[in-house]
Amino acid sequence: MKQLFIVGIGPGGPEGLTGEARRALDAAEVLCGYTVYLDLLAPLYPGKETYSTPMTRELERCRWALETASAGRTVAMVCSGDAGVYGMAGPLLQMAEEYPEVETAVIPGVTAALSGAAVLGAPLMNDFCVISLSDLLTPWEAIEKRLRCAAEGDFSICIYNPGSKKRAGHLKRACEILLETKSPETVCGWVRNIGREGQESKLLTLAELSGETSDMFTTVFVGASATQKIAGRMVTPRGYEKKNAEKEDG
Amino acid sequence: MKQLFIVGIGPGGPEGLTGEARRALDAAEVLCGYTVYLDLLAPLYPGKETYSTPMTRELERCRWALETASAGRTVAMVCSGDAGVYGMAGPLLQMAEEYPEVETAVIPGVTAALSGAAVLGAPLMNDFCVISLSDLLTPWEAIEKRLRCAAEGDFSICIYNPGSKKRAGHLKRACEILLETKSPETVCGWVRNIGREGQESKLLTLAELSGETSDMFTTVFVGASATQKIAGRMVTPRGYEKKNAEKEDG
């Protein structure tokens, strides 16, 4: 069988892998991915063959993975978080159309929206949006429009790729857009290096968030209007209290 | 130490658990949750003490968990998918303010948006929204508004709780709202019983989705305008092809 697994490895170390992901990595003869993620797995698979390309050469990596699987070797393409959220599942499945002989399987993982939320408390307990501020692949106008729609709908918002050296100012601009609709007191938070060495996090207001610097290892959370700071945690109520109060009233 | 873990167990069986979740469940003296989820874990923990309440008595379950942890027993509150997405992390952390002696930790898991997406392909590869159609805890008007905003922003949309016996017609109404903005040909899909016995899935158009019946074990995916059906899978392109074409052009 010609098999290619596209595996989300979760936030960081081996503890974040699901059993299913672990089984796919065990089965793979070669692990393929961005160097940082392969390094996170190295302690689990010392000596296993790996193949990596720099961050910006994703399609080359997909091609290599499909060619290698087609040649009969079992390959796991490794993605941080979930393979289907800003990961390699999309481009790989698009390209896989040219390799009908290769069986592909996407193995889901814990994306940063979930692992970061768990660090902060429960900011995504009700309806939420996930938006990337990277305009490498999406026009900036489309990102601005989505930020406006997310604010208008009063979603909790999780922001990926809030900044990098090349994109300084994106988070500040995003906050300005959100502040057109949302209160400057909106509860926000960020987490950096989730589940890895040097993990940090902070709760702050939307007004304060605007002045923060961020990098590609930071995930940002902007609360809905109902989101609260409770005992140092960011929590979006789901509405159970209200329901119970109504029950008691009625 | 008085310890309470709030654990997302992923879509179904033991294979969906992360190592971290597994460790928390191992450490717990008592597992607490909705019966269906405790049953999924039973093969892993035969004989371990459990406590459950019916689905609608969530706050009672949270209170019991906190009281039990406060009395010195290590408790794991078990949620399907991720504890922080329509799960118990929110109400538990709200109530935990009354129990400062209890140390609480949220352990993230693979929510149905991710596990369902992996079954269908890669529908959430770009910015996306997660919306529940249950109006038990959220007014229906707020849900309608979020659907409109999600369509307006051209997000991929993942819909939780699309229907139940009491909420027949919610999915049809949601599709009507989305069709105000989106093409009837928009690529959509649903997955039922993700990662469990009897898993089913289907790709269809938004026009067709409107006539489907669904239940509380179904997760629905509505594509963005760019979402495609590729070799029987639902894929939202991230834009690598476009970028590479521009590179070659420029």
From TrEMBL, chains A, B:
One example of a Gene Ontology biological process annotation: methylation
Enzyme Commission numbers on file: 2.1.1.131
Signal peptide bounds: none
Gene3D superfamilies xref list: Cobalt-precorrin-4 Transmethylase, Domain 1 (3.40.1010.10), Methyltransferase, Cobalt-precorrin-4 Transmethylase, Domain 2 (3.30.950.10)
Limits of the Tetrapyrrole methylase domain: 4-209
Single GO MF descriptor: precorrin-3B C17-methyltransferase activity
Stretches that traverse the bilayer: none
Pathway linked to the protein: Cofactor biosynthesis; adenosylcobalamin biosynthesis
Source species, domain of life: Bacteria
PANTHER family (alphabetical): COBALT-FACTOR III C(17)-METHYLTRANSFERASE-RELATED
NCBIfam families hit by this protein: cobJ_cbiH (TIGR01466)
UniProt protein name: Precorrin-3B C(17)-methyltransferase
Organism for this UniProt entry: Candidatus Gallacutalibacter pullicola
